[in-house]
């Protein structure tokens, strides 16, 4: 099926999902009742209708081939299944264990569609435990879960493209739930869980660590635990493959959109020319703000217990990554949008609902237009004489505005009075 046809179909599905989302947002009282009496049934029905049946329709009935990163995932899963050593025998921009995890469904069904289903099941598992975590303190938790399933961005990036970014929230959720159960002496457990996450998903998860260190009671103990796990792992990789284990870092050198750099580049180029082939300095500069802003927020909220701050610091960290890292791509919205729905957005407020839907639509539409236009870099305002470029640039600006809005909501909640229910 031609890619433009796929895009039009995505837009049509987005309209249906948005209508369902608005309808769901208006049924608060009904969902409160269901949450008290039939939450498992409602969740199962929502999962079946919004994930399982569409997967069957797309990949088994229509026989569509998986798109996005799935072909690359399948290549890695096949190589891992055959006993290949990550980074040496096959390329990977993920943590060393990732390829072996996604090879599990390929052992059962040797088809790239199996990886998409695996990603859907992982997402739904993370969503279920997110709902369970919020259920006791939020009477709209079940409604939030269904709203998340109806978000066009989540539907397209996970069900259609099989993206794994939601795993970042899944790892954070595990750490958070641990601190909810262990309100003191949690550093060893958090250190172990964090180390496992770094070896499992992507190196970018390290961005959250500095903010976490600000709010834990014993940061040195946490670092020592992580070092006890991480250093032998790094040593083993170096022994086996030399410096090839640094491969995931190379992925950060490519300039992507939307972010503050891509939207301010026409202004920057008026003062200094940016060499895209040597953009490492730009990402290092962005890294400073990616780390500093969440650390500052952590400092402002340091009097609260860590279990009140983890979801908020996670959101702040990944929003900052999308704002300040010139290599961050639009798909990273999936890493934190589930947490946003449960933690900072109030669907009773029309403004919140509209902006959440807007962000979700932008996440689907802007990357496609950018790719169709052959990934333009706006180095001069004269480029906006092309109306297509101007439209895509405005979409990037709207994206960045939505990121800033989420960051503002997150900061406001961090500095607000403590929530006794969490601690």
Q: Could you tell me the mean pLDDT?
A: 95
Calculate Rg over CA atoms.
21 Å
Uncertain runs are none
Overall body shape: globular
Instruction: Quote the distance from N terminus to C terminus.
Output: 52 Å
Order of helices and strands: HHHHHHHHHHHHHHHHHHHH
Percentage of β-strand residues: under 5%
Write the layout of secondary structure elements.
Blueprint: H1 3-25, H2 28-37, H3 39-61, H4 70-81, H5 98-102, H6 104-108, H7 112-135, H8 141-150, H9 152-160, H10 166-181, H11 187-200, H12 209-215, H13 219-241, H14 247-250, H15 260-269, H16 280-300, H17 306-324, H18 333-343, H19 350-372, H20 387-415
What do these coordinates show?
The chain is mainly alpha-helical and 423 residues long. Helices cover 70% and strands 0% of the residues. It has 20 helices and no strands. It has helices spanning 3-25, 28-37, 39-61, 70-81, 98-102, 104-108, 112-135, 141-150, 152-160, 166-181, 187-200, 209-215, 219-241, 247-250, 260-269, 280-300, 306-324, 333-343, 350-372, 387-415. Helix 10 (166-181) packs across helix 18 (333-343) and helix 17 (306-324) packs antiparallel against helix 20 (387-415). The longest helix is centred in the C-terminal third of the chain and has 29 residues, at 387-415. It is globular, with a radius of gyration of 21 Å. The model has no long low-confidence stretch (mean pLDDT 95).
């Amino acid at each position: 099926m031609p890619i433009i046809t796929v895009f039009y179909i995505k837009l049509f599905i987005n309209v249906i999902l948005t209508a369902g989302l608005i309808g769901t947002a208006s049924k608060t009282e009904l969902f409160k009742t269901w949450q008290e009496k039939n939450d498992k049934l409602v969740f199962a029905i929502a999962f079946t209708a919004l994930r399982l049946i569409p997967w069957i329709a797309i990949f088994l009935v229509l026989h569509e081939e998986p798109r996005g990163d799935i072909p690359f995932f399948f290549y890695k899963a096949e190589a891992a299944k055959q006993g290949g050593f990550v980074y040496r025998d096959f390329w990977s921009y993920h943590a060393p264990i990732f390829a072996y995890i996604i090879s599990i469904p390929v052992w059962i069904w040797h088809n790239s569609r199996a990886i998409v289903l695996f990603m859907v099941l992982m997402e739904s598992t993370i969503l279920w435990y997110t709902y369970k975590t919020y259920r006791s303190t939020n009477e709209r938790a079940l409604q939030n879960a269904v709203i998340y399933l109806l978000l066009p961005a989540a539907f397209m990036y996970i069900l259609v493209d099989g993206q794994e970014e939601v795993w970042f929230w899944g790892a954070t959720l595990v750490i958070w739930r641990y601190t909810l159960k262990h309100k003191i002496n949690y550093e060893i457990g958090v250190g172990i869980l964090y180390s496992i996450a770094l070896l499992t998903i992507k190196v970018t998860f390290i961005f959250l660590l500095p903010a976490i260190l600000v709010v834990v009671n014993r940061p040195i103990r946490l670092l020592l635990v992580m070092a006890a796990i991480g250093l032998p792992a790094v040593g083993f990789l170096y022994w086996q493959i030399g410096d090839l284990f640094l491969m995931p870092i190379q992925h950060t050198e490519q300039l992507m959109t939307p972010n503050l750099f891509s939207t301010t580049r026409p202004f920057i180029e008026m003062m200094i020319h940016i060499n895209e082939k040597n953009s490492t300095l730009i990402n290092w500069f962005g890294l400073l703000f990616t780390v500093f802003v969440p650390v500052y927020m952590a400092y402002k909220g340091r009097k609260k217990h860590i279990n009140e701050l983890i979801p908020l610091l996670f959101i702040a960290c990944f929003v900052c990554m999308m704002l300040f890292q010139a290599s961050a791509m639009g798909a990273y919205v999936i890493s934190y949008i589930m947490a946003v729905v449960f933690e900072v957005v109030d669907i009773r407020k029309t403004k919140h609902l509209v902006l959440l839907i807007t962000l979700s639509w932008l996440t689907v539409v802007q990357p496609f237009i950018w790719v169709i236009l052959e990934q333009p870099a706006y180095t001069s305002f004269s480029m906006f004489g092309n109306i297509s470029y101007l439209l895509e640039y405005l979409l990037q600006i709207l994206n960045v505005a939505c990121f800033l809005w989420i960051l503002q909501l997150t900061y406001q909640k961090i500095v607000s009075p403590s929530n006794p229910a969490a601690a």
